[in-house]
Amino acid sequence: MNYHMKQLLLLPAAVLTLAISYNCSKPNIKSDPANVSLDLPSSPFEYNKVSTSIGKLNNYYEDLTLLDNDKATLGRVLFYDKALSINNSVACASCHSQDHGFADITAFSKGFAEKPTERNSMGISNLVDERNIGYFWDARETKIESMVFAPIANHIEMGFDRIDLISTKVSNLPYYNDLIQKAYGTTEVSEERLRESLAQFLFSIVSQNTKFDIGMYKGFSNFTASEKNGMQLFNENLCGSCHQLAAGFSSSYGSIKFANIGLDKNDNDPGINGLYKIPRLKNIALTGPYMHDGRFKNLEEVLNHYSENIQDNAKLHGFLKESTGAVKKMEFSEQDKRDIIAFLNTLTDMTTMTDKKFSNPFN
Ligand code: HEC
Ligand code: HEC
After folding, report:
1. What span, in angstroms and rounded, lies between the C-alpha atoms of 301 and 350?
2. Which top CATH class is 211-350?
3. What stretch(es) of the chain map to CATH 1.10.760.10?
4. Angle between the N-to-C axes of helices 69-80 and 191-204, in degrees from 0 to 180, rounded to the nearest 10
5. Is the pLDDT of residue 254 over 80?
């Protein structure tokens, strides 16, 4: 056997040993960038603008500065990159899919080791409206730049518990050089840069081009009778007092940001002392299953809950009680339910769901 042949035989063995030793104790800081190719435009997409029926409007970051197109471009690649998980198996987008309002279609998503998450994945859109509330079902993260690394480090989601090694891993992926250079002026990879660019991309996902948004400028002349009736029922039954209209049906401009809606008499997930963040309803038709534990498969089941199944408990919000203190029974007719669902469907923004600037850039 000549020298070269021996080398060829030894090489795979060496690579294998390396891979095994990394897998056992240390994060997998080796990854295979050789086959990666990215489909990115020569000048960046306009992440700092959102299309609406009255033209393009500015898009803002958490501190209300205009978004940066190059940072958001870098963030887009990170969002879709499986290298951000310990074993290169899941990306943010695995549980936040563009087709589904940036949520997942199962109650509990599978993380890097196929273990289920403890809560239902949340749709991502209009995060700028969440900046005074906090992120996650219990709003435990109050700053987006600390929030974005939580899933990467999470022992179920992406498993990168040595978060200090994430910059090292990204520095070893050559396709990031140019992206970081464009966003920050040098190729240096730092945690701060990764956090900020991911967060910039998340904030760029804004849905403002729904039938509802268009209707706001037209006195809802674009609505069917059923959608109009659904909107009226939504307001009369105080749905709109919690899911605030002004903020993409989130709660940021309302006085209540968290509530218990009587899903159970006793909940074994404490939330925030029994309360949960009031979720945004933009794109709600796409983000099922519903609630923090994904217990309702579809909007019919959600309406059956509000209609007749609200459970009394010490934390139940007053909006869901009668003045006597008894639990409210909205008792919607089948037609009412269909109308409310028709109304909720007007909150879907297909522009966001099909816009290339939010899609997977990996070929
Ligand atoms: C394995 C599935 C999974 C992966 C991977 C994942 N997420 Fe999530 N995401 C979730 C779940 C589940 C929640 C709700 C968690 C909670 O409330 O405790 C969530 C919540 C969020 C929220 C909160 C939205 C809001 O309105 O408060 C944001 C933002 C988010 N994820 C962004 C990301 C980013 C960025 C990444 C990648 C770095 C990522 N996620 C990776 C499952 C996942
Ligand atoms: C007291 C405030 C409050 C009222 C009133 C209210 N909601 Fe909710 N809604 C919430 C909260 C909080 C959640 C999340 C609860 C959880 O997961 O534990 C929620 C969840 C939802 C969801 C599922 C969101 C998701 O992302 O999974 C839908 C849909 C919804 N509500 C629609 C309605 C409709 C329709 C009405 C009126 C019939 C209504 N809500 C009335 C606070 C409220």
Report:
1. 24
2. mainly alpha
3. 44-207, 211-350
4. 100
5. no
**Tokens 């060829």 label which residue?**
8
Q: Which atom of ligand 1 is nearest to the CA of 279?
A: 26
pLDDT at residue 19 is higher than 50: no
Tokens of residue 18, six digits: 């390396």
Whether residue 237 has its Cβ less than 6 Å from ligand 2? yes
Counting ligands in written order, which one lies closest to the CA of residue 278? Answer: 2
Average pLDDT of the chain to the nearest whole number? 90
- The best mutation among 77, 96, 155 to test binding of ligand 1, ranked by most ligand atoms within 8 Å of the C-beta, falls on 96
∠ Cα 180 183 188 (to 5°): 35
44-207 folds as Cytochrome Bc1 Complex; Chain D, domain 2 (1.10.760)
Closest ligand 2 atom to 340 CA: 35
Q: Is 198 in the pocket of ligand 1 (CB under 6 A)?
A: yes
Does the beta carbon of 96 lie inside 6 Å of ligand 2? no
